[in-house]
Amino acid sequence: MFLHKLFEIHIKAIYHQLCLISPSLHFSFVVHQNKIFWTIPFDPFRSSVVTLIQNIFEKYKDQSFFILRNRIYTTDQFHDADLGIIKILAKKGTDQLHMHFETSSIDDKNKYDIKYEFNLNNYQFNFIEPNSIIHYTSFLESNNSHLLHIILSKKIKLFSKNSHLLFQNYLFSLLSTTALINKRGSKLHMFHRSIAAIMLDKNNCLISYGINSNAINKSLHAEIIMIDQGIRNINFNKNCFDLSKINLYLTHQPCRMCSSYIYKFTEMYKIENFNIYFQYSMPGASNQIIIPIIKERTIHFLS
Description:
- The two termini are 42 Å apart.
- With 303 residues, the chain is α/β, with parallel strands linked by helices.
- It is 44% helix and 16% strand.
- 38% of the residues are buried.
- It is built from 11 helices and 10 strands.
C-alpha cells in the first residue's frame, strides 16, 4: 500500500516507462529529488535490488546515504539477500509492483493517464550499468589482490597438515592480520572495521577471501567480497575446487545482509556440507537470522 495517492501515480508512471524500456527483465529503482536511479540484475546470483544498492554506493558515494533513505521499488519478489541488504543499507522497500497496480481502480487509472506525460517530464532517468559492481577490495589493486591470494593459499596449505584445532587457531590469527591490510584514512568516516573472511574447499584450498572495505561503500563487507570473488573463481576454475565441503572462517559473526548472501551461495552451488567458523560474536548480528536460515540446509554454524 502506498501512503500518498499522488505519489502512487508518480511511481506508477515511472513503473510503466521502465516496463517499456526493460520489458523482459526485472528492474529496481529509487527516486531522489526527481531523479530515478534504476538498474536490472547483474547476474543470476545478484538481483536488481542488490545491484542497485551496491552500484549507488559505488557510483554516487557522496549522495548514496541520501538516495537510499528513499523507498526502493522492484518488479521482482524480495528474497533473503534483498531483505538483508535493504535492512542494513536502505531500510525501506516495496516488491512486486505489478501486484500493486493491477488492483488500481478506474478512477486511479484515469488520474494516471492525465498526469502521465507531466510526471515523466519532471523526472530524470539515470540507468546504472550493472557491471563491474564490486572490486576485490576498495584499496587493493587487482594485481596486489592476486598476489595476496597466492600468499594466503601457500600459508594455509602449509598449516593445513596440523590438527583441526591448531589449524583453526592459525586461520583466525591469519585473518586478524589480513583484516588490517586495507589502508585507513585520516578521518573517522574513512576507517574500515578490521574484519576479514576466507573460504576453503574440502581440501583446504583457498577459494576466495574478503577484507572489509565499507568506509564509503557500505555494501563492501568482507563476507560479500569473499562470496563475489568466490563465485568468480569457482566459475573460472570449475575443476580446481572440491565443493562437496566448504568451510568459511570469519573474524566476526555475519550480519543479516552477509548471512543472506552466504545462504544464497549455498543454494546456488547446492552445498550441503557447509561450516561457518567465526572468532567474535556480534550482538544483534545474525542470531535471529542466520541460524534458522542455515538449519533449512543442515549447515553447521560454529564458533
